[in-house]
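Progress against Task 2.4 (sequence-to-structure conversion) is shown through the following example record, which the project officer requested during the mid-term review.
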Amino acid sequence: MLSRQSYLVSVLTVCLTAAAFASDDLPKTLMTQRGKLLVSEDFTKLPVLSKDKPLNFASGFNGWIYTSGLAVGRSGRWELRDDAFRGIENPEAHHPATASYGIRFQDAIIQCEMKLGEAPAKGMPEPYLQIKATDAKDYVCVLTFSQSGLAGKPFDEAHIDPATKQRAEGTATKLRQPIKPGEWHTVVMEIKGEEIVGTLDGKSITFSDPLIAASKHCIKFVARTDGSIRAFRMWEALPNPAWPKNKAALLSSGSPSSN
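Structure tokens generated for the chain above:
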């Protein structure tokens, strides 16, 4: 029989090995390295709603804010479906479903799996899913996952969109990759300082803007028409010494485009 000391050593070895394998299974990052795990949500049940009162839509709360059930108003609704968090647009309001997670952060790695809904009903727009970050009052940046692939944009602090009364969107940087509805894909968003790296199934884009360096207050998931997320993780982002080399390789590859 193993002595207690030998048993504890064996258990520790198994745990460390399991942790190493878990780390190896994570998608690689280019600009940052994963630090402290800040959020881990597998949507085994509907997330608990925050009791805080938001300031507008962007700040003033911790945890989840979203609408479920049929009384959707302008915000669409979210439900559990097939072990995932599914957002469904309200067709009458023509407004995507939004689910916000309030958390104060500066630099972070945000990761989840995404799936677009099946072909929309007649008259409904093509589906997309977005990850947005806000500062205290408005949007800072966005990654959009759609049938065309992945696109990233900063928001423009100097200009207001007359239709939304919010910051206007900046220039898009795009990764063109056909995405079929109903299939799961992994999306990673690295935020550090003024820069962002967005990665879809191991292929990446990068863009920057001074506004991105703002102190951030929440992560917002947006589902137009119909889309699902699962395995939502968020880590503190630490510097990656290989970023200058990785960035040079990414920019020289010619894969991202801005338009």
